[in-house]
Amino acid sequence: MSKYKKLSHAIYYREYHIIWVPKYRYRVLKGAIKEMGERDIRGISEWLGCEVRELNIQEDPVHVVVSIPPKVSISDYMGTVKGKTAIKLFKSYSGMRQKPYWGNHFWARGYFVSTVGVDAEMIKKYVKYQEKEEKREEKQQGGFRFL
User: Does the pTM of the predicted model rise above 0.70?
Assistant: First the structure.
């Protein structure tokens, strides 16, 4: 499996490490709730065209490394995942809605996101020496440059 993905007009490598927590960091992500969460996060991600590379649901935080295509913003991804999983959890476990600390929200506001990618030094070298490399290749091909 190549780390680069293709769309009709783009080739991309966009992986993110995202972390989010239940409201008030209450430790409820265990047992059947954890299993449902894993299944739903993977299913929603697939539905959005995203690929979950790693998923770790602990009792309080959720960690996911996910490849998200350029046509899906991170905020759209997180809004969909958090919204749909919360709705399903409240439908499946109606007792959770009764507790005073939930209200109508299962997840805490916000999330942490960080890019996972190619080494920064390697990118800097690529950018710095790219023009020199292209000129060398152009010279080898007799003045023609292919895109």
Answer: yes
